[in-house]
Design goal:
By secondary structure, the chain is of the alpha+beta class. It has 3 helices and 11 strands.
């Protein structure tokens, strides 16, 4: 518990510090209902690349749908693009939600951090849950927390309604 508090304190202190020019491989590690750094749904691949300082190489999954994996230091995940625009970002390592919920954190901590949760059973993993938090004001972006049967957050996503997708663009 003490190390979790220290991590949140360190991340928040870094977020409050004056911003130096980001390193070319910089990806913000705080995910909120307002975005990830300056990245928001609806941006083009080029806009996301500029803001993250990464070279994304989207691969077409189906017509109008592409996915780009990325890795920057401890941050791992992928971006889902619909008709050339960002739909959602999915992280499996290296991020923390703005209210202190990290990958590996508990479902109990998630419930304490966010009052209004939408909970659905995971389609593929028996006993797992997909937990959604919706932004109160427009645009109604969402956070998604995938929670294992053991009650641990395994993935955090941010985006538009595409966070409800179970697989790629399906």
């Amino acid at each position: 518990m003490r190390s979790g508090v220290a991590l949140v304190t360190a991340v928040l202190a870094l977020a409050a510090a004056p911003a130096a020019a980001p390193a070319p491989d910089f990806v913000p590690s705080i995910v909120t209902l307002d975005g990830v750094g300056e990245v928001r749904p609806g941006q083009t691949v080029a806009q996301v690349e500029r803001r993250f300082g990464l070279d994304l190489r989207p691969e077409t999954i189906s017509p109008g749908c592409a996915q780009a994996s990325f890795r920057s230091g401890p941050v791992h995940g992928h971006a889902l693009f619909l008709r050339g625009r960002l739909g959602s970002l999915w992280f499996d390592r290296g991020v923390i939600a703005g209210r202190g919920v990290a990958i590996g954190g508990s479902f109990a901590a998630l419930k304490r951090a966010y009052r209004t949760l939408e909970i659905r059973r995971d389609v593929y993993v028996p006993g797992a849950r997909n937990v959604y938090v919706r932004r109160a004001r427009a645009p109604h972006w969402r956070l998604r927390f995938d929670v294992s049967p053991q009650g641990r957050v395994t993935r955090i996503a941010f985006g538009d309604r595409s966070v409800y997708r179970t697989e790629g663009c399906a």
